[in-house]
Amino acid sequence: MLSGTARRYAIAYQTIVIKEVARFLRIWVQTILPAAITMTLYFLIFGNLIGPRIGEMEGFRYVQYIAPGIIMMAVITNSYANVVSSFFGSKFQKHIEEMLVAPIPNWIIIAGFITGGVARGLCVGVVVTAVALFFTDLQVHSLTVMASTILLTAMLFSLGGLINGLFARNFDDTSIIPTFVLTPLTYLGGVFYSIKLLPETWQIVSFGNPILYMVNAFRYGVLGVSDIPLPAAYGVILLFIAALWLLSLRLFNQGTGIKT
Amino acid sequence: MPALSIKNLHKTYKNGFQALKGIDLEVESGDFFALLGPNGAGKSTTIGIITGLVTKSGGSVSIYGHDIEHEIEAAKTHIGLVPQEINFSQFEPVIDIVVNQAGYYGLERTLAKQRAAKYLKALGLWEKRNDRSRTLSGGMKRRLMIARALVHEPKLLILDEPTAGVDIELRRSMWEFLRATNLDGTTIILTTHYLEEAERLCRRIAIIDQGEIIENTSMKRLVAQLDMETFILDIRQHLTEPPLVDGYHLRLVDETTLEVDVSKALGINELFRGLSEQGVEVVSMRNKANRLEELFIRLLDKSANNAHA
Fold first, then answer.
1. pLDDT tens digit string along A191-240?
2. What is the layout of strands, in order, in the sheet containing B187-191?
3. Domain boundary assignment for chain A
4. Which of A20, A91, A109, A260 to mutate to test the interface with B (most CBs of B within 10 A)?
5. How many domains are there within chain B?
């Protein structure tokens, strides 16, 4: 049985999550459907049309090899986009004040928004996986690795979206990071290729890209192959989560972007 | 224990603007308190600090004995806020806005729904409960914010210009609702530009100007400061010149309307007697301006003169 305060926190958290999930489900045409369409095109073009000419990669058909990366790419972009747009929208319309005037600690508000982002990331992940099954068979090498990697990655990018949302002053600010940072890092994060194909210098440069660790860990969970050792991948993901969590908490406590 | 206690509250914004210059204020539990002041005087900043939306630069604020710095959650539990600007999601259904707010205060979903129904019905919004909030009229949006602020049944309700842009009929129904809420035991702090509203509803009043409290007293005492009132008299006869009555300076507005200044010392009976003796029949009479408005402007002028002195 939870104490009075813990119960109050639990209800507040649950309320934020319900509100966040209801938001992205209400506008599913903007939040779920585009990912399904885009990823279908990726599978169609890179998997079915170009893939057979590329041949095998790491012992798998090309479409099979890129499927985990494409799923992960959808999870990354959608968990980030969900929190940045929802949080900035709540700042823009000022309804973030509904939470700020209530007796909710900042970490609960952060956790609520992050859970909303994770929920959308997972939801899109399931949809894209279903799309992938139309184009290729997907095996499950390790369900635990698959589930944990996708969950932690969605958490990480939801935190990133939240921090972006805190700093954003207008809608343009919400698209700068996704366009100029996230997309290039995702494309260069081993979604479409193994970094073993790159010259050694570029392989080393690639190790500085955190998305490489997430894509490869997830690929290991699905196919059992990875360019990165699993402990290193988990280490990087957890390190980033911890750093972004502490940063977002600090920004909230300082009132950055939300208080005058 | 006071509902609100503010001591030496300061706020300086990052751009250097000093919004509050050390204000002290106390609002008793159960009071209906008016906080008046011109635009930019510091009313909304004060409310922002009380409710945790603005960070104070100095001083202390406590709500029912809970300091907002050290016991912020306990303090917030007692407050309900109706802000000046519309601040709910324009895309959410009305009922969700109220139920979610209850959830932020830790109310179980079932209780939250019951409370939402209670306040949406009381404020005439129940029929609109499933509508998107952006489809509501301006007055309905204001009432929705009141329902949202009351859903956790706070002991202190703060309303920042709740009737701005609301038509007079609706405004009067909101007054009745707020009066009943106050009689039920909720302490209310109201900021408004409609001075008539403050005079009708509030028992105590503070006037803030340029970040300082320039008056803090009971409404009766404040109004009692007025030694002169201006009345408009509608008369039956058609006059070309104003009548002469000893002690009163009567002015002709048009041929059937008179304007007169009446001092408290002289009263109004002698005026009627004098007019009656001259065969002038008064059909109706009204204040030229709201009494509080006259006083308000006078106090602000005095404050401005002191600042320049």
1. 888 888 888 888 888 888 999 999 999 999 999 999 899 999 999 999 99
2. B79-82, B156-160, B187-191, B32-36, B204-209, B212-218
3. 4-254
4. A260
5. 2
